[in-house]
Amino acid sequence: MRTKNQATIPDWLKWFTLGLVIFASVAVIIVSVRLTPASNQVGQIDSEVLARQLEFILRMNSAFLGFLGIIGALLVWFFKNNLEDAKVVASTMVREELDRHIQAKIQEEFRFWELSLRTERVIGQTLVDYYLPNGSQEPPEFFLVRNRGFRQVSFCSRLREVRRSETASDVVIFDAQNWENDQGERVVKLTEKGWLVDESEKQVKQQIDELRKILPNYAVLVVYVRGIVGYLNDPKFESVYVLPANNQVTLLGHAANGAFVASADRNPSRSQY
């Protein structure tokens, strides 16, 4: 026989209170076992994303089982005369709430994964020529570019070695920073303010003009030099893909960005990046 206090508790209040407790508990569980933010190391994206998702689901399952035990006592108090139905209702509510959060997290990870794969696909299809006039061996910057994952990075020490016509490269790097003359002296010399001296500016300008003559319009030319090339401020370069890189970081970044520009210019109907 029910006591007076139990008899006066309305059914709607029981359901409302139970629902509020379950919602709050699920929210705590979701926050406590949230996925670790996606890694930026795209080269390991497949294994890392799948591992994080598996770990997340296992931790979520453990939390769910523990949560059922915690609310067991609440169910007995709320539904003393119909405990089996109460378990079904509570389990359904909790599973629906957890499924909603799990699906949202997995969809977020999948979108990042898809974008990363699309990015690497463009990089993996890009041809790069690394041009160092009179270069006897590859400089360290060449290996940085080669290790980025481009389809092919070719070292060129002569202008005639730079690919052209139908087999032209998508990105050409003109290394003026490591350029040396026949006496082993650096060709590029700078003023106190960082501008190229007149003779260096003249020689760099000549190389840029020669490269632009043989490259197709979609190709991106990156001029690598730790100084300011005044010639690149010429208005004519506003309509062509020529840009400077003054350190190793910007060199690698411009080479990768140039891959997307070349891809978009060659295939405007298929490029959606």
Question: Quick recap of the structure?
Answer:
The protein is of the alpha/beta class. It has helices at residues 4-7, 11-32, 45-78, 83-124, 140-146, 198-214, 248-266, and strands at residues 127-131, 152-156, 171-175, 220-224, 242-245.
Could you explain how this protein is built, in words?
The protein has 273 residues and is of the alpha/beta class. It folds into two domains: 4-122, no CATH class; 126-266, Rossmann fold (3-Layer(aba) Sandwich), CATH 3.40.50. 53% of the residues lie in helices and 9% in strands. It has seven helices and five strands. It has helices at 4-7, 11-32, 45-78, 83-124, 140-146, 198-214, 248-266, and strands at 127-131, 152-156, 171-175, 220-224, 242-245. Strands 2-1-3-4-5 form a five-stranded parallel β-sheet, sandwiched between helices. Helix 2 packs antiparallel against helix 3, helix 2 (11-32) packs parallel to helix 4 (83-124) and helix 3 packs antiparallel against helix 4 (83-124). The radius of gyration is 31 Å and the shape is elongated. It starts with a helix and ends in a 7-residue tail after the last helix. The model is unreliable at 1-7 and 37-43 (pLDDT under 50).
SSE order and pairing:
Blueprint: H1 4-7, H2 11-32, H3 45-78, H4 83-124, E1 127-131, H5 140-146, E2 152-156, E3 171-175, H6 198-214, E4 220-224, E5 242-245, H7 248-266
Parallel strand pairs: 1-2, 1-3, 3-4, 4-5
